[in-house]
Amino acid sequence: MTKRLPIFSNLILVLQVFLGLLCFADLNSLPSPVLFAGRLHPLILHLPITLILLLLPLSFYAANRKEKKNIAAFFQLMLHCVALISTLTAITGFLLAAGGAYEADSLVIHKWLGVSIALLSHALTYLYNPLHTKPMAWNTLLAVTILITVAGGHFGGTLTHGESFFSFSYNRKAVLANISETEKIYPFAAASTSSIEKLNNPFRRVLKVSATSPALAVKFSIREKFDIKLLKECNQIAEQITELNLSGMPVDDQVFSILAGFLNLEKLNLNSTSIAGRGINKLMALKKLEQLSVVNTAVDLQEMLPLVKMASLKHIFIWNTNVGEKDLVLLKSKSPKIRWEMGYQANKNEILQLSPPYLEDNEKLIFEKGLNIVLKNPFPNAKIRYTTDGLMPDSLNGNIYSGEIYTTTMLRIKAVTTLEGWVTSAVSDFTVYPKGIACDSATLLSKPNRGKSFGAKILIDGRKGFSQTADQLYNSWLGFKKEDFKAGFHFGSNPILHEIVISTADMTYSSGASVFPPTKITIKGGENAKKMKTIGVLSPEMPLMRRPNASIPYVIPIKPGKYPYIEIEMLTLKSLPEWHQEKGQKGFVFLDEVFFY
Amino acid sequence: MENQEKQFRLNITRKHFLTKAGLGFGSAALGSMLFKDQLFGTDQQQSIPLGLAQYAPKAKRIIYLFQNGAPSQLETFDYKPLLNKMHGEELPASIRMGQRLTGMTANQEKFPLVGSTFGFSQHGKSGAWISELFPNIASIADDICIVKTMNTEAINHDPALTFFQTGAQQGNRPSMGAWMSYGLGSENSNLPSYTVLLSRGRGNGQGVYSKLWTNGFLDSVHQGVVFSSGDDPVLYLNNPEGHDKQSRRDMLDQLAKFNAEAFDNFGDPEINTRIKQYEMSYRMQSAVPELTDLSKESENTIKMYGPDCLVPGTYAANCLLARKLSESGVRFVQLYHQGWDTHGNLANDMRMQAEDVDRASAGLIKDLKQRGLLDETLVIWGGEFGRTNYCQGKIDVANYGRDHHPKCFSIWMAGGGIKPGMVYGETDEFGYNTIKDPVSVHDFHATVLHLMGINHEQLTYRHLGRRYRLTDVAGQVVNRIIA
Fold this sequence. Notes:
The complex is a heterodimer. Chain A is an alpha+beta fold. Chain A is built from 14 helices and 24 strands. Chain A has helices at 6-24, 32-36, 41-44, 46-63, 68-99, 104-127, 135-161, 172-182, 193-199, 228-232, 255-259, 301-304, 325-334, 470-476; strands spanning 204-208, 216-220, 241-245, 267-269, 291-293, 315-317, 339-341, 358-359, 366-367, 371-376, 383-387, 399-400, 404-407, 411-418, 428-434, 441-444, 478-480, 485-490, 496-506, 520-528, 531-538, 550-562, 565-571, 589-596. In chain A, the strands form five sheets. Chain A has a seven-stranded mixed β-sheet. In chain A, strands 9-15-14-11-12 form a five-stranded mixed β-sheet, with no helix packed on it. In chain A, strands 16-18-23-20-21 form a five-stranded antiparallel β-sheet, with no helix packed on it. Chain B has one domain: 3-Layer(aba) Sandwich (Alkaline Phosphatase, subunit A), CATH 3.40.720. Chain B has 14 helices and 17 strands. The interface between A and B is large, with 69 and 74 residues.
C-alpha cells in the first residue's frame, strides 16, 4: 500500500462527518450566507463526474505499467482529490436543495446518490493498492462508483431540466414556454422593499404578485378614507404596477390623467366609481392594458368608442352602465378581439318563490305588558300579509303589514311575503306570549329523552327555547318519547288561574324529525299531588301530512280557581303515521315553556 | 459538611474543564449552524417568504362551499345506471373487498344496491352527467371541473371533516384558511384574511366546531373569524350607546399604550396580536357595513343567487356575502352548509338540500364571472366523503338511505386556474372504487396550494420539534386539472 496523505485524508473524514450531520439536520433554518454556499454546487459538480470517469482509463494504465511507484503516488493524490471534491459537491448540494424548490422524488434520489459517491470515492482511497493484490475488490468498487456517478448525474439533470431531459423527445422550447407561463417575465426591475412598505397602509395595499416577480398589485379599500393623494403617491412605483383596483372608491374622471402614467398596467378595476368616462381615452397610453372593468358607472358609448383601437385590450366588463344593448353591438363590431361582458341577465319569465318574513327580534317572544311585533321583509317592494286568527294568509287574504303589530295578549301570527311576478312565500308562524303568573317551582315526574340536564326549571324560566334549528332545539327544549310528559307545578301565592298555555314544537319537516303534537293533554289541580282533580283536557289534532316546522302553543282553558299544585300530563304519539319515514315508531313531544294565566 | 461540598466543587481538574468546555463550545458552534433558531431564538420559521405567493399564483382567493354531512355522489355527479338495473341485489364481495364500514351498517345482514331515484342528463361540452336536482349547477357545466375520484382516509364525519380542513384527522393542526392566511397574508388589512360563514339546511345535520377553523399552532391572527348568521354578522362591532367613533378611537389608543407597555415587559407575541385585532376591529366598523348591506341588491342578483340571498344566515345570503368578502380581498372564505347526512330519507333530504344550494352555488360562479373575478378566485364545492352504493336501512325505490363511503366521491372546483368544463377521474360502474386518477385529500390540498402560488412542501411551520405542513408528508399536485 502506498503512503496515504494524512492531512488530505483527515480533512475528507471531517467533511464527511459534517455531510453525515447534514443528512439529518433541518437545513432551512441555516443562515442565508451559509445557504449561499449552495450556489457553488452547479459550479463544481462536473469536476467529480469527470474525475471519476477518468479513473477507469487511468486505473487500466496504472495496472499495466512497470514503474508503479510514481504512478501510484499520483494516482493516490488523484483519488484524494476525487474524494474531497465529491464530498464538497455533496455538501453544497444539500445547501442548494435547502434554499430551492425542487421536485421531491428526484431530489431524494439525487441526494442519496450524491452522498454515496462521496463515501465510495473516499473508500477508493483506502482500497487502492498499486500491487493489485485485491484487483477484484478494487475493480468492483470502481465500477459501482462510476455507475452511481452516472445515475447521480442523470437525476441531477432531471431536477434542473425536467423529466424528459435525457430522452430524444426533449423539447427545450416547450420547457422554456412552461417556465414563462408560470412566471411572467417583465422588462422592469423590482421596486425596493422599503418603498413598497412605505406605501402600504390600511387603506392602500401594495402587494408583489409573487416573490420572484417585480410586478405589483395595488388595491384601495374603505371609501370614506380614500383621498386621491393615495393614488398619486403610487407614482413612485408606477413602472411596477400591473394591477390596480379602485373599485368602490370615490374617484371621478380626473383619475384618468393619473392612470395614464401607470404604463405597465394590465388590469384596471374602476367598478362602482364616480367616473362618467370623460377622458377615458387617456388610457390608450397604456399599451399593456388587457382587462378593464367599469361596471356600475356612468360611462357611455361615445366615451368607450376610442378604446376599441387598443390592441392590448382583451376583456372589458361594462354591465350596468349607460352602454346599452345596441351600443354593444356597435362596440363589438369594431373590436372583434375584445370580449365585452354585459353581466348576468335574469330570465324574465322565470318566477321564483319569495322568502318568508321573519321577526326582527327573535329573542323578544315573551313580554311583560305589551309588545310591538316587528316583522322584517327583505324584499324592497314586497308586501307582508298576516293573520292572527289561525287562517292561512296568501297574496290576497290577510292583513297588510304596515309597521308594527301591538299586542297585550298572546298572539299567533301567520305571515307571508307577496309580490307581483313572484310566487308568494311559505308561511312564517310565530307566537308571542304575555309573561303570566309566576310559578314557584316545577318538578319533572317522568324522564325526558332530550334536555335531561335542564330539568323542569326551563319550563318556567320566562325564556323561549331556540326555534331555528333542530340541534339547538335539542339543547334548550325538553323532549319526551319513551315516557309521556308529566310534571308538577307549585304556587305558594295561591293565585286564581283560568288558562294554561303550553309552548310545544312541531317538527315533521326536517330530516328524520318525528316531533308531533301530544295526543292528549290533561291538567289536574288541587292542594297537592294527592288531592287534585282533572280541571282541563285538550286533544290536539294530528297533522295529516308533513308540515313546516313551527312552535305551536296549546291553550287549555281550566276551571277558574286557586290551585297550589298543578300537574300536567301530555301523551306522546305511540305510532307514527303511514306517511312518515319512521312509520309505526313512537313520536316525540317537545316543549320549552308553560304559561299560567 | 460545607467544606466537603467546597472540596467536591473544587475537584474539577484542568482536563475535566477542557473536556467539558471543549465539548460545550463545539456543540454550541455546531448547534448554531444547524439549529440556529433554537439556540438563539428567532422568528424565522421557514425559508420561503411569507405574506406573498412563492411563484405567480393562478388563484388569489378561495371560496370553499363545504357541504357538511357528505352529499351523495350517486345523486349529484357520479351517474351509475347499473345501480338502477341491479336495484335490490347484493353488493358483490369482489367490489367491496372487505372495505371497513361504519358502525351504522357494519352489522347489516345485507348490502342491497340502490340506484338513484333522480334522473341524470349530460351537460356542457364535456358531457358531464349531472343530477336533475342541480339544474343551475348544470347550467355552469362549462365553467366547472368535476373531480369524481376524491377519496379520504376517514369514515366518520368529525375526523373526515377535520382531515379535509386541516390535513390531519386529530384536530390540532391549523386549518386550510389559517395556512393561507399565514402563507399569503391579507389583501385587505381592514378585514380578517380568513372568514367562516355557517348555514343549515333542512336535511339531517352534523355539527361544525371551531376546531375546523382553528389557527392550530400558528399565530392566532390566522384563526378563522365566524360571521354570525343574524342581521348583525360581526357581533359587538357597533359602538355601544353613548360612545361615538372618536371616543372609541381614544379608548383604543389608550388601550394600545397599555398593551405596548405590557409587550415591552413580557414580550408575549399574543399581546401584539391583540393590538392588531383591536385595530382591525376598529377599521371593520367601516368595512363590514359596506359588505353586509343587502338593501341595494338588484333583481338580477336576487334571481342569480335566489330570493334567500336577502335573508341573513341562509346559504344563498352566505354565497352573496362570500363574493363580497372575496372581492374585498379576504383570502379564504369558508362556508359550511349543514344537512347532507342522508342515512335515511335520502330522496326528501337531497331534494331540500339541493334547493338550498343549487341556485346560489351556480349564482356565485356567474357573479364572479361577470365581475372578472372568477379567473383569480378558486371556488370549491364538496363534502367530507361520499355515500355507499348500497342501502342503509329499509330499501324503497322512493326512499332509502346511504351510509358513509370514503373510497370515491365527487367535488367540483371552478375558476382560479382550474381547467373549466372537464370531468376528472373514473369510478367503477358500481360507484364504489376508483379505477382511474384517484385524488386524495393531501393531493387536493397540494393542488389548492399550488394554485395559490405555494409549493405545499415548503409552506411549513416548526412546532414541537418538527416541521408541519398542510399536506403532512404526502400530496401530489393534480396537474391535469390545472388550466
